[in-house]
Structure formats: structure tokens, C-alpha cells
Amino acid sequence: MTYFLGRYDYAMDSRGRVPVPPRYRDAFARGAMLSQGPDPCLRLFTIESFEQQAALYTKEPPLDRTGRVLRHAFFPRSFSVELDRQGRILIPSTLRGYARLEGNVVVAGAGEWLEIWNPEQFEAEMAAVARWQEKRAASEEAES
User: Fold this and answer.
1) What is the mean pLDDT of the segment spanning 3-14?
2) How far is it, in rounded angstroms, from Cα 127 to Cα 48?
3) Domain 7-118 sits in which CATH superfamily?
4) Which of 1, 23, 107, 126 has the smallest C-beta neighbourhood within 10 Å, fewest atoms?
5) 17 strand-pairing partners
6) 17-52 residue pLDDT tens
7) Which residues are CB-neighbours of 12 under 8 A, at least 6 positions away?
8) Of 70-79, 80-89, 130-139, where does mean pLDDT reach its minimum?
9) d(Cα 143, Cα 59) in Å, to the nearest integer?
10) Rounded to a whole number, what is the distance in angstroms from the first to the last CA of the chain?
């Protein structure tokens, strides 16, 4: 399994195409799935990692309200995408609007997938992560 790491700054073109970092393009040779993330970003999955994620959303029976809500939260917001010859993906306009993508974007590794962020939102998220880590470290220090 490939773990996606690092931060990559790119420009999205006027058609909504974003480059995939060259070191990871081979991981998407069988195809890719792009999904709205729970944070204000997009998640780019390999086929294998999408199937693993989809399994989490289909654990609950579809006749139960929870099962339907989980499916509605994930599948209608997911799209099949392909890399073009330049290693770019075309982001559907609905997903671009959700993540507020225009001009510059950040492609960030998130372990099992890549995330695509508006740069300002990514910086705000990283600041929130830093505050969370500091608070957690202080809490652990106080316990010892």
C-alpha cells in the first residue's frame, strides 16, 4: 500500500485541472476517485483505497436510516476521474465550489489518500492542528 505524504503547491488551470504529484502518478494507473472530504477539501483516492473507504460507509444496512445517511454522505459526492497525459485530474465544478478552489491549490498527503485544499483553508487547518497538538502535549505533561 502506498502512503501519500508531503505538501505540493500547484496552480489549477481555468478548466479545473490540477496536477497529481509526479511521485504518486503511478498509484493512480488503474484510475482514481475524487470525493468531498469531511473537512473543506477534496480527497483523491486510488481505486483500492476508495474501496476500503466505501466499505466503511456501507457497514450499516441500507434499510436503516444510519446506513442511508452514510451512503448519502459519501457516494453522491464522489466522482471517477482519470489522469491526463500531463498527470492532471479534472475536478468537477461542484467539488471545486465545495472546496473553494480557484487559482492556487495545495495537494497534501493524508496517508491513504491525497487531499486538495484552498491554500488559505489549508493554512488555517494546519494552525488548528498545531494548537490541538500543543493542547494535547500540555494535557499529557500535566498527567505525568
Assistant:
1) 96
2) 31
3) Transcriptional regulator MraZ domain (3.40.1550.20)
4) 1
5) 90
6) 999 999 999 999 899 999 998 899 999 999 998 888
7) 18, 91, 96, 101, 102, 103, 104, 105
8) 70-79
9) 37
10) 37
